[in-house]
Amino acid sequence: MEYIVEVKNLKKSYENGKIKALNGIDLKIEKGDFVAIIGQSGSGKSTLLNMLGALDVADEGTIIVDGYDLINDKNLDKFRSKELGFIFQLHNLIPNLSVLENVEIPMFETKLSGKERTERATELLTLVGLKDKLQIKPTKLSGGERQRVAIARALANNPSIILADEPTGALDSKTSSEVLDLLMDLHKNQNVTLIMVTHDLNVAKLANRQIEVLDGKIISQ
Ligand SMILES: Nc1ncnc2c1ncn2[C@@H]1O[C@H](COP(=O)(O)OP(=O)(O)OP(=O)(O)O)[C@@H](O)[C@H]1O
Ligand SMILES: [Mg+2]
User: Fold this and answer.
1) Which of 12, 14, 215 to mutate to test the pocket of ligand 1 (most atoms within 8 A of CB)?
2) pTM, 2 dp
3) How many other CB atoms sit within 10 Å of the CB of residue 56?
4) How many CB atoms lie within 10 A of CB 87?
5) How far is the C-alpha of 30 from the C-alpha of 17, rounded, in Å?
6) Of the candidates 21, 99, 127, 150, which lies 20 to 30 Å from 10 by C-alpha distance?
7) What number of other Cβ atoms are within 10 A of residue 8's Cβ?
8) For residue 17, what pLDDT is reported?
9) Which domains occur in the chain, in start order?
10) Whose Cα sits closest to atom 14 in ligand 1?
């Protein structure tokens, strides 16, 4: 079995240890899998996802993602820019850049020329159905459209793993199923590992595996 994620005894607290967000997480995820992380509000889902994306620092434990040791490796720029696509709970687009520029951002750290960056960003925005909105600012888009820009941005560098935090949380059911179809297509056709946090059990059912977090621990999987 080839694992893309291997987590052992992961602990993370906030406020000088007063809030124990993760309380000893053990988790293995196979390459190419589609996994849903479920659990009530405040249970630690986003904290766990942020740790898997090297967006925050752990207190204790081991996190290996796609061969990178996220706790001990000194330089994770390559991991962040080449292997990882992260879709945030609130899409985090840059408001004063155009849709196209937002998708180009992750490619600035690559060897692509300006022209190649623009071509790739255009291609991705076409894929998510936004080819008519390239020059628009994100503030003029609907919630679903913003989330689709965030997906296009997450795909910019052909990541091997996509971490998505409630990608459909703010969307109506029709837009939500469009966004999900898009993510599932990527998972199926490009063998991208997809790890998605959701509070919606109907969405979680679409995954191959469901992992339930409660009080910073995995209680079922
Ligand atoms: N930056 C922070 N500083 C202090 N406490 C935090 C911080 N981030 C999260 N927490 C706390 O850690 C716990 C886990 O939070 P987390 O965001 O992981 O929950 P969640 O499962 O993603 O919840 P939700 O479903 O509401 O998004 C909560 O008690 C939360 O209040
Ligand atoms: Mg959260």
Assistant:
1) 14
2) 0.91
3) 15
4) 24
5) 32
6) 150
7) 14
8) 92
9) 3-220 (3.40.50.300)
10) 44
Residue 191: partners with Cβ closer than 8 Å, 6 or more residues away: 31, 32
CA of 143 to the centre of ligand 1 (A): 23
Which atom in ligand 1 lies closest to the alpha carbon of residue 39?
A: 21
- Indicate the top mutation candidate among 10, 12, 38, 46 to test ligand 1's pocket, ranked by most ligand atoms within 8 A of CB: 46
Atom index in ligand 1 nearest the CA of residue 49 equals 18
Return all residues near 151 (Cβ < 8 A) that are at least 6 apart: 87, 128, 167, 179, 182, 183
Which tokens go with 101?
A: 């520029």
Residues with CB under 6 A from ligand 1: 14-15, 19, 21, 39, 41-47, 199
Interior angle at CA 14, CA 12 and CA 17, nearest 5 = 85
> How crowded is the C-beta side of 69, counted as CA atoms within 13 Å?
6
- Pick the closest to residue 58 from 17, 10, 15 (CA basis): 10
Instruction: Give the Å distance between the CA of 71 and the centre of ligand 1.
Output: 20
